[in-house]
Structure formats: structure tokens, C-alpha cells
Amino acid sequence: MKKLLTLAMVALMASLPMLAQRHNYGSTPSNRYDYERSHSRWIRNYYGKDMYFGLRIGPAFSHVSGDAISYAGDSKTGLHLGGVVGFELTNRAPVFFETGLSYVNKGGKGTILGDKVTTDLSYLELPLVFKYIHYTDMGLSIHPLFGGYLAVGVDGKTKYYSTKHKESAFSKDGFKRFDGGLRIGCGVGFSMFYLDLCYDIGLANVSHDDYNSSSNRTLYLNFGVNF
Predict the structure, then answer these.
(1) How far does the chain reach from its first CA to its final CA, in angstroms?
(2) Rounded to an integer, what distance in angstroms lies between the CA atom of residue 146 and that of residue 11?
(3) If DSSP codes are grouped into helix, strand and coil, which group holds residue 6?
């Protein structure tokens, strides 16, 4: 499964130049200006930018999927907060590469041997995604996206409720600090306002167990603005 997802990511990256050639807005400044003049004022304001900055905030719904974590199916809600920057890859189509830095709470909760357990995993995360921005006459823009992410754990706690015991989640008996995987999603923009829904599929084994593997799964609902 992981090999198929990796191949799909490589195939999408390889197809971006062909997508840019098919969606031709004109390579000269005059053609591009004529296109912008024929659309709404929101498109004229935001189409043509070869770079943008954005702020994002919203909930993150996560769980740990795999063999080593017995409560893998139970999700928890955390916070996602960060900033992004996007670079236009070609002036022939609105294809952008977006990266940035964010803070996100992941983890899971459930029961182990009848004991209620919650694991909180906090990461600094680097998104690496490609966006195709489709503009409409109503002032809305649609932002399908696909790519990946890299993350490093900065704090983590595992809580055992029956004994009221806490321990570090990032330890030799717990979780590894490195995480990484694929990201898919879609956003909607209106003027400077932005909303998206994204899903992270962790490909890195975050467990220290040599005989089992576990990975993060996270659903984001982001609100923000672009400048």
C-alpha cells in the first residue's frame, strides 16, 4: 500500500508540466491581462500573483494506525496552527508549490487492558504540496492539492487514567520523533479568505517496536487568510 501511494505521488509530480501546457492562459503579459480583465474583481486581485503568504488555524482529528497500538482506532482532537507560503511554478497555469511551518497535536486514545489511555503527540510540521487553483466567475477559487509532509515531535505525553500516571510519549518504549507521509485535500478561497479540508496518510513507522509498525492518520479542517 505504501509503495502504491508513493508511486501515485511521483506520477502526479511528473504530470504537472503536462497539466500546465494544457491549461494555457497565454504566455505573454498582454494575454494574461486580457484574461484577468474578463473576470470578476476578486480574480483580477488574486490571479497573477506568483507568490502568496497565508495563516492557518483549525482542528486536527487524529489517530494512530497500525499493529503496535491497541487503541489505534480511537481518534482525538487537537490544534493545528501555522503559516504557509506558495510559489507559482509556471505563468501558463495557476499551479503552485506550497510549504510553510505549522504546529499540530496528534495522537490517539482508548483503553489498554481496561485502563483508559490518552497519548498526545505534538509536532512541528513542514508541508510540501502542489496546488492547482481553479478560478470561477463568482469570485470563488477551488484549490485541489496533493503532496506530502515532514514532521518532528517536540512534545508528547501518555496518560494512564486508572493510576493517574504520565510518561513521555517520545521514548525508547513509545514513539519515534520523526514522521512523514502523503497529504491530499481541497481548499476554497473567496477574496483573501480561505478554507480547506486535508488528510494526512503517515508513511513513517512512528513506533519503536521492531516487529510491528504504526503510523499517524490526521484529518485537518483549516481556516485562514492569504496575502
Answers:
(1) 38
(2) 11
(3) helix
Residues in the chain where the model's pLDDT stays below 70:
1-48, 67-73, 112-113, 211
pLDDT of residue 17: 46
- What secondary structure does DSSP assign to 79-141, as a single string? EEEEEEEEEES-TTS-EEEEEEEEEEEEEEEEEETTEEEEEEEEEEEEEEEEEE-EE-TTSEE
Give whole-number Cα distances, 66 to 44, 61, 85, 114, 217, in Å. Answer: 47, 17, 33, 20, 10
Per this entry, what is the length of the chain? 227
- pLDDT for 173 equals 81
The C-alpha cell at 83 is 503559516
Q: What is the pLDDT of residue 161?
A: 86
Q: Coil, strand, or helix at residue 16?
A: helix
Say how far apart CA 227 and CA 225 lie, in whole Å: 7
The whole-number pLDDT of residue 25 equals 41
Q: Beta 95-112 vs 134-135: how paired, if at all?
A: unpaired
Q: Which amino acid, 81?
A: L
**Integer Cα distance of 48 and 40 in angstroms:** 13
CB contact at 8 A, 24 and 92: yes
How confident is the model at residue 32, as a pLDDT?
45
Give the C-alpha separation, 186 to 204, whole Å: 23
